[in-house]
Design brief:
Spore Coat Polysaccharide Biosynthesis Protein SpsA, Chain A; two-stranded antiparallel ribbon; disordered C terminus
Length: 272
């Protein structure tokens, strides 16, 4: 069984579309679906109750953040695999079955992510190396974006990789990520000190250190709008380029780099 977990905050209409896409994806995998609503003010929880009665709804009274909300569902889920799915991510046909099939034939894979595409059909970053001071410098300088196809200047996002075959990577975005329950039982859940951002990077780092592998797979596709929950935070500064709330991102970066090991490990990445 696969436990699909969607954390939502003020995305009622987008969340409905996400669930519609999930239930019409044509996948054969047995699923249970959790929606963790982080105290939305737009009626998201009521929409789930009335429109999707078979979905397990966790309606929080306050916004606990992405990591803690996912952990709530992890503790209740009964699947062998957990699929983290953003509410602004719409699964393409058979994406879930293909992800499960890859996990079944790759027992040392702790988690993997699929191919993320924009509403316009463009490829979005779907395979990444661990952050490092150098990659941060290249990103802030604009060189990574200007030379996005360069395996050197855009090494962080595997510049030049056609995303046409499975590849072992350092980490994958939490937009569409399938996770082996056995791995979580051994290394622990998300670190709840991360309110949002970097929690999946931290989890992948811990997985790699524990001997598990992380993969990108191209045949599990998901269409991603980007930043749907974050854009609702009118009290925060939103970075349009990164589709992120700046203050949350900065705090999460500080947490990620808080130990010297993080900085050193940032230079260690999958080769090839």
């Amino acid at each position: 069984m696969v436990s699909v977990i969607i954390v939502s905050f003020n995305t009622k209409d987008i969340l409905k579309n996400c669930l519609d896409a999930l239930f019409s994806s044509g996948d054969d995998s047995q699923t249970e679906v959790f929606v963790v609503d982080n105290a939305s003010g737009d009626g998201s929880a009521d929409m789930v109750r009335s429109t999707f009665p078979d979905v397990h709804l966790i309606a929080n009274q306050q916004n606990l953040g992405f990591a803690a909300a996912n952990n709530q569902a992890f503790r209740l889920a009964s699947g062998n695999y957990f699929l983290i799915l953003n509410p602004d991510a719409y699964i393409r046909k058979r994406a879930l079955d293909r992800a499960v099939a890859f996990m079944e034939k790759t027992p040392d894979c702790g988690l993997c992510g699929g191919k993320i595409i924009s509403p316009e059909g463009n490829l979005e970053p779907s395979a990444r190396r661990f952050p490092s001071p150098l990659s941060k410098l290249l990103t802030l300088s604009g060189l990574s974006g200007r030379f996005s196809g360069s395996p050197i200047l855009n090494r962080h996002e595997f510049g030049g990789f056609l995303h046409d075959k499975p590849r072992e990577v350092d980490w994958v975005p939490g937009t569409f990520t399938i996770i082996r329950k056995e791995m979580l039982d051994k290394i622990g859940l998300f670190d709840e000190r991360f309110f949002i951002y970097y929690e999946e990077t931290d989890l992948c780092l811990r997985a790699r250190k524990a001997g598990w592998k992380v993969y990108f797979i191209p045949d599990a596709e998901v269409m991603h709008i980007g930043g749907a929950c974050s854009k609702t935070r009118k009290d925060k500064t939103f970075d349009d380029a990164a589709s992120q709330v700046l203050s949350f991102r900065m705090r999460s970066e500080w947490l990620y780099y808080r130990a010297p090991l993080r900085i050193d490990f940032g230079y260690i990445a999958v080769t090839g």
